[in-house]
Please model this.
Amino acid sequence: METAFYFEQAGIGLSMDENYHIFLALKQLIITHPIQTCRFWGKILGLEMNYIVAEVEFQEGEEEEEAEEEEVVEEAGKEGSEARDEDEEEEKVEDEPPKSTYKPPPVIPKEENRTGANKFTYFVCNEPGKPWVRLTQVTPAQIVAARKIKKFFTGRLDAPIVSYPPFPGNEGNYLRAQIARISAGTQISPLGFFQFGEEEGDEEEEGGAGRDTYEENPDFEPISVIELLDSLSNWVHHVQNILMQGRCVWVNPSQKSEVEEEEGEEEEKPDEPDEPEEEVGPPLLTPLSEDSDILNIPPWTAESSTNLVPQYSIAVLHSNLWPGAYSFAIGKRFDNIYLGWGHKYSPENYTPTMPPPVQTEYISGPETTEMSDPTVEEELALKVAQEEALAAAEEEDEMEEEEDEDEDD
Amino acid sequence: MDAESLPYALDLVAGSGVSLSPEKRAALRASLLLVLRDYRFEKVRLWGRIQCIRGAYYIAEGLGSDRFGPRSRLYSLNCVEWSLLPPPTEEMIILTAGLKGRFQGDPSYEYEPYEKKIDEDRPYDEESPLVKEEIRLVAAVDQIDKAVGIVPRGAYVKTPLGPVHENRNFEGLSLTEAKKLSSYFHFTEPVKLKNKSLLEKADLDPATDFLDSLEHDIPKGSWSIQLERGGSLVVLRSLLWLGLTFYHVPLTKQHGYIYYGTGEKNIDLPFML
Model:
């Protein structure tokens, strides 16, 4: 509730009674589920209904029920991505004869609970008071696909996503993928509020990308509002960046599919890159000042809530990359909220990706290319030549037979 | 939305993330009254806010006795000092049509005019003037108003002499009517009405149905209509100009709209539905 007050001061957010309704709804959620932390993440507008999103973290040891669901989800996820491949394959299989050379790319494994893009669990409801629905964990394939499409949410979680390229899953999965993307892009905190855990210290030397946990810094010294406004380097991301692969931590997709690899080794595959290069994103707690611009537009706009009484003002940041994402900070308090349609800002128009080029039916060679018919003379000449060759061959055969006979003797 | 009922109205549209800080609200309530007095308007409305990279433009409009007539628009960067915007012209709209990207938040910022296609038979115009952001603002506000400024059916009446007045007998739409797009009208010169057949026109009341309804907007589904607060509030959101929110409380006179966005048209709409 307190954060709601600050957001109101900043001129962001919902009306007071709606906030209160949401607060009550969150309370209900906490009572019914073993939840450790719970936060109002934001609201996503839809065509028919809106989504209210809560970000929760389950208590340790309460994952059993989750784990069960997990497997189902995993399968569903796999089915989804396989289905997608099948779609592509089907067309080719219809014409049986030429064997399809298409090999589905190895499925990139999903991230474990509590890590990377699945660090938190999200619950959504359409209106405060309606039952909360748990969103399934996101798979990398979904994030990758979500990057390529731009669709309005309808407000029904089971609505199909009709798009090109096809999205693996329904609207619930799309919503979860977008939440993951928005979180990764816009969850920020003042510099120094979080620090890396002690045990992670050793890993730092190894590479830094492995650090994925952080804890609250007990000795955090509040940064003054003016400093927060002046320089974006006083703000840091506290959610891991999602790589192009759709995961926060890079995995090598070809390691997983060793069996396939062996099969594939028989035929040479020159077009396939032998080893995909490892992607490394910016490490956790990277300052905002290192965010890239969107075509000359700065990614963040900092504002003070008031110019008239600066001693009571709070620092407010608007994201220009994800319009609708806001953050505020004052003293030790800060929060992020998202209110919008759930789309990334793009200065250029959205263009759906082009369909892949049509597969060639056969290799064009002498058997399939059309030739001019031979004239009578050519035919006769060929006949003569063939007869001669035949005669020569027969003679040879006879010779050989004779030889054979000699040998037999 | 009307200046008098501003706090109440802002509360109603807050569901789509439209809200102003208490400071801005207080400033608006005082300054809009002054605008009303100084410019001798009959009515002043808060039109909306265009979010810029630095700060935001707050737009108000003042109306004369003919509600349908030309409107004066004012803008302000701090909700206190208002300056008049020049009336929009065709030329401005053409000039600004190619500008892309966010508003800068500085009225005197000059945009590079976009590259015109060079016609072969006509030599390339020498220096085309730089476009000021103020001009772009005028054009954007005008376009938004023309495309998605809407009123409920029956809220305004056309008198036989021509001027359009508020309908004093308007008691709000019933709940069933309020759920239909056909009971909302574009508050601009009708375009499609003239093309309607006599049969379709037969049911229309010339006093109230003198505007285009939203029903046949292109593309289909460019409005999101929702009931909030247990059906006591209808909220329409335009998907073509993301950020425009219209509210109407059924069975009351309360209605209005506010634009609260970046001032950019959603040209990706056909792909997103």
Observations:
- The two ends of chain B are 29 Å apart (CA to CA).
